Structures are given as C-alpha cells and as structure tokens.
C-alpha cells in the first residue's frame, strides 16, 4: 500500500461523516453480443452451480425509477447468460454511498463486486490501492474501448478502472409559461440574467429555486460562475499548484454568488432544504428558474412528479459575462460503475462482470437511457441521432444547449481532492449563511489545498 493513502482514506471517512457534500448527480456501445467476442472462458461458464454477485447502485427514489428499470433489465439479461448466477441489487442513496459506505468498504479492502462510483477522484484513489478491476483488456475483448466519449476520469496510468453510465450538462431549467406570459427572453449575458432575476423578484416570485442542505447543489451555480469569471481551465490547476483558490477572479465569482443570496434571489432558509425541495419550488411555480444537471429533465417530463408543470419547463445554458464570449458549460461523464479487483480471482464472477458490461453499454441502452431518463449518452453518438430519440420540447432544449457549448469543463469535485471538496462545501454554506467573506473563505480553501497537494 502506498505511503499516505490508507490514512487519507480513513481521513475521508471521518470528514464525510461530518459533512455530506458531493455533485452531481450526475452523470451504450452499439455491438450485439455475438459481435463482441467471448464473454469469459468456457470452463467458467459451463458450471451451473449457484453463485452470487452484488451490484451496489444508487437508483433510489421516484426520480430515478426509469434508470432503475433499465438496470433491472440488464440484470435479467446477465443472469440469463451466465449459468448459476444470481445478482443481488443493493440500493443505497448516492451521497451515503459515495461519502460514507463505499469509503468505509474500500478502507477495509472489501468493496462490493460492482458498485456506483465517481471516476475522479474516488475511482483513481481506489485504483492506486489495487482495489479496482482493470477493465482495459475486457474492453478490448468486447470491442468497447474506443466507443466512449471520454474515459479520462476513470483512467489511471493508461489503465481503465470504471465506466461512465452517462453524461450530463448543467444549466437553467425555467418556467416557459411564465416567460411567455411576462414577455421574458432567454438571457444572453450574465448581466441580462441578473436583470431578469431582479424583474422576477419584483413580481413576487423567487428567481432561482435552491436547496443548500447538501453543498454540492449550490456549488453547481458557484462552479459555473467561477468558470466564467476565472476561466474553466483554472480548476485543473488547483491540484498542481498552477492555480490558486484565492485568485482575484475567483473572489469575484464567489462574491457574485454572495450578492445573489443577499439580494434574495434564492428562497430564505435554503440551508435547511433538501434537493427535492428545490425541484418542488419550480414545480409549484414558487420559483421560476433552477440551476441543475440535465439529468433532472426526467422529473419535469413525468406528470406524476411534475404535475401540471409537466411539459412546461425549458432549459438554457448559463450565459457568458458579455456578448461574444464563448458559452462555457459543465459537461461531465464522471459517474458510473466500478468493479472490485477481487473479481479477477473468480472466473465465474469475471464472466458475470463481462456479461454485465456487454449488456449495459450498448447503443440501445444508451438511447433508451436518453429517451426514458433523459441521461445524455456516455458513448460517442451523433447529435442528430440523439435528437431523434425524443420530440419532447425540454429534451430538444437540452440538445440545443449541447450544440451551443464552446468550452466545457468537468465538475469541480472531479478535479480536486476530497478534503478540498469538503472545505469548499463548508465554505459555500458559510457564504450562504452570511458567516464569512469570499476572500477569507478562499484563503482557507487554498490552505487546505496546499496541505492536500503536499500529501500527493
């Protein structure tokens, strides 16, 4: 075990039991099984003696019911292909899995056979400890290695240690009926967005739906703001020391978020509100706009969740600081599935994993994920092909938003150490609560960053 890694894992467990904070939510190659090579060796598949693998997933709650249905279908196909196999599904809330349960299992060296995981920094950290299955040869065997839009966050030293289940972008969902009624237009600059929020507030509505009990939610807004003020490249440099959190432009970005809080553009008491509360603010018409990941579209297209607001929500990218500047958007493929390295020691489990990968990452499943759950594909797919999957107006808005992206960046928590993420999470909640000034907050985060970088 590399020096310093186990203590770091233990530190992460303690820090994240104190504060649960993460991202997004965040986030299938087109070959039939007969075209993808052998699933595993014949000896492993010939026995029908019962055995079991566990798949830890986070498809919990009504908003993830479509994704759960797709997973269950893949499970059924995989069980039918592998003699004797039973797959046990272990459902855990995403934040609990990421910040507590999986970290504890990894520290003990006993993760589930298959598990929901974020590629960076988690999968890369676990891979350094030899706890993640190297998928490189498996992907070659199945003809999948070059099918993905990106595997960067799951790649370490040229080896692949997990697969993204889908992609996403972040932007604003908005009440189209209200915009039409009031004669409002999609803002083209950040100043126009500011003035739009002011006008909405003057009409007695909340400009931006928000819920900040989990810090990753308001940090979607913050992350997009600093990527405009300081440039999307700045986040890449925090771990290397090339960038500084307390950069003047970063201070301006945090100050803009603080300004919006002080102007009352978010609901009072947001620090006590859960993620679902934020969506309810826009569904009930209490709020008019909401920064969220494109994955949330499934909620607004489902009458059982969105009620009368179903079909009446649109989407647009956060606009740049001034006209003519490039449109900069968080675009990610960082959440997916990882596999325990222990699987390699059991030929039958390895056969099951290969079958699961073969069945999950197909063009059919990716297109269904896009159509039924609104999750952007993780595999390479023509935009026009994506557009054919749905005539839904909201999905078409999201496709348009994708086509407008000129610069993109991964979410902040894919580019910084977990303890830095924790400090940032505490910091933004302190900003929202009026407990700290932006410059002071960023000085503290930089100090944590310096310490984390020294341990690398």
- What percent of the residues sit in helical stretches (DSSP H or I)? 40-55%
Strand content: 5-15%
Task: State the end-to-end distance.
Answer: 14 Å
The CATH architecture of the largest domain can be given as: 3-Layer(aba) Sandwich
Overall number of strands = 13
- Rg of Cα set: 22 Å
Number of helices: 19
CATH level-1 class of the largest domain: Alpha Beta
Coarse structural class: alpha/beta
Detail the poorly predicted runs.
Answer: 1-41
Protein name: Extracellular solute-binding protein
Family: Belongs to the bacterial solute-binding protein 1 family.
Pfam family, one: SBP_bac_1
Signal peptide: 1-21
What would a concise description of this structure say?
With 456 residues, the protein is an alpha/beta fold. It has helices spanning 5-18, 42-46, 65-81, 94-108, 119-128, 136-142, 176-182, 190-202, 216-229, 248-262, 275-283, 297-300, 303-306, 347-360, 363-373, 383-387, 393-404, 418-432, 438-455; strands at 51-57, 85-91, 114-118, 155-156, 159-160, 163-164, 168-175, 206-209, 287-293, 313-316, 328-332, 335-339, 407-409. It is globular, with a radius of gyration of 22 Å.
């Amino acid at each position: 075990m590399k020096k310093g890694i186990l203590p770091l894992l233990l530190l992460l467990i303690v820090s994240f039991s104190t504060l649960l904070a993460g991202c997004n939510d965040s986030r299938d190659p087109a070959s039939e099984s007969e075209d993808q090579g052998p699933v595993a060796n014949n000896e492993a598949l010939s026995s029908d003696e019962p055995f079991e693998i566990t798949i830890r997933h986070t498809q919990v709650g009504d908003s993830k019911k479509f994704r759960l249905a797709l997973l269950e279908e893949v499970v059924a196909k995989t069980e039918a292909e592998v003699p004797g196999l039973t797959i046990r599904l272990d459902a855990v809330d995403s934040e609990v899995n990421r910040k507590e349960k999986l970290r504890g299992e990894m520290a003990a060296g006993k993760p589930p056979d298959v598990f929901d995981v974020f590629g960076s920094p988690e999968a890369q950290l676990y891979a350094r400890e030899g706890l993640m299955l190297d998928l490189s040869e498996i992907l070659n065997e199945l003809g999948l290695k070059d099918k993905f839009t990106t595997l960067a966050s799951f790649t370490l030293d040229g080896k692949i240690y997990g697969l993204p289940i889908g992609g996403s972008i972040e932007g604003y969902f908005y009440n189209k009926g209200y915009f039409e009624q009031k004669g409002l237009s999609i803002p083209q600059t950040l100043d126009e967005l500011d003035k739009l929020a002011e006008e909405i507030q003057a009409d007695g509505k909340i400009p931006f739906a928000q819920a900040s009990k989990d810090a990753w939610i308001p940090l979607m807004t913050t992350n997009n703001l600093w990527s405009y003020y300081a440039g999307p490249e700045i986040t890449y440099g925090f771990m290397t020391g090339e960038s500084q959190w307390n950069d003047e432009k970063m201070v301006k970005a945090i100050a803009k978020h603080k300004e919006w809080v002080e102007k009352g553009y978010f609901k009072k008491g947001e620090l006590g509100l859960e993620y679902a509360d934020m969506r309810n603010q826009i569904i009930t018409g209490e709020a008019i706009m909401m920064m969220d990941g494109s994955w949330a579209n499934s909620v607004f297209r489902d009458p059982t969740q969105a009620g009368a607001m179903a079909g009446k929500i649109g989407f647009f990218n956060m606009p740049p600081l001034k006209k003519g500047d490039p449109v900069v958007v968080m675009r990610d493929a960082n959440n997916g599935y990882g596999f325990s390295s222990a699987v390699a020691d059991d030929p039958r489990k390895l056969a099951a994993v290969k079958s699961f990968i073969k069945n999950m990452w197909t063009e059919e499943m990716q297109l269904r994920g896009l159509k039924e759950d609104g999750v952007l594909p993780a595999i390479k797919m023509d935009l026009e092909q994506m557009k054919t999957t749905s005539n839904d107006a909201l999905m078409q808005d999201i496709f348009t938003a994708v086509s407008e992206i000129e610069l993109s960046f991964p979410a902040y928590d894919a580019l910084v150490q977990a303890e830095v993420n924790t400090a940032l999470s505490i910091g933004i909640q302190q900003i929202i609560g009026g407990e700290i000034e932006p410059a002071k907050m960023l000085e503290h985060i930089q100090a944590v960053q310096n310490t984390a970088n020294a341990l690398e």
